[in-house]
Design brief:
The complex is a heterodimer of chains A (132) and B (128). Chain A has 132 residues and is α/β, with parallel strands linked by helices. Chain A contains 3 helices and 6 strands, in the order αββββαβαβ. In chain A, a hairpin with a 2-residue loop joins β3 (71-73) and β4 (76-77). The N and C termini of chain A lie far apart (77 Å). The mean pLDDT of chain A is 81. Chain B is α/β, with parallel strands linked by helices and 128 residues long. Chain B has 4 helices and 7 strands; from the N terminus they run αβββββαβαβα. In chain B, a hairpin with a 2-residue loop joins β4 and β5 (66-68). The N and C termini of chain B lie far apart (82 Å). The model of chain B has no long low-confidence stretch (mean pLDDT 82). At the A-B interface, α1, β1, α3 and β6 of A face α1, β1 and α3 of B.
Amino acid sequence: MKLINKKKREYDDDGLLPLVNIIFLLLIFFMIAGVIEKRIINDDIDLPSVDLSKYNYKEVTRILIKKDNILSINDEVIEMSQIDNYFKTNKQNEVIVIADKSLYIKDINVLLSKLHKNKITNIKLLSNRNGN
Amino acid sequence: MTKISLTPVIDVVFILLIFFMLASNFNKVGQINMEMTKESSSAANEDIKIIKLLIQQDQTVLSDGKVYNDNDLLIMIKLAIKDVSEYSIILTSKNDVTYQRFLSIMSFLKKNKLNNIRIGLKKNEINK
């Protein structure tokens, strides 16, 4: 009788190759499409949902206004009346305004007017492009 | 022939994948550049056509006492600037207008290639 000498199959992980392929693809996608940068918007600010041109990240002064009208400049809470003093000591000509969508524009106009008075010419308003 | 085990490679790739998934974010923030003017300021140059718009919260805009919806507004502006070399659109808003509504109008005008848009600041907003 002929004995079949079944060669014990060594463990190999050929079956994992499709998985490796997919993981590599995902990895390459996240490496290319994702941007690792500092989050500029706090979760408690709901930006207006408007499809504006893409924001290019730049290290500039950030003015945040939450829905309860609390104002902060670069994460430092400040009163509206102190803005003039702030910009007298910190000369700037570019700021970004990050405001909650539920705010009234009249409140934002007060801020914009103060910025204008302090000769800040480059003012950018931010929106959430995915919110449409 | 000895085969190289794939398991350590997968471990490392998984760790890299998780890192990139958590650390990266996709840019979904939009921006608009602002120009401001006093509501009362008049054009120095007579040739500049000034169109003053008063935004209302109910999806309409007032101009010269007439109420316009978005499409009518666009037609009105296009007609008004048809024969002028320069124009300026000054946006003011009623007190109950939200920031969302204001930016929507700004975006709508910009998308329709109307670029000379300025925010009109009211006297009470300037003096605060």
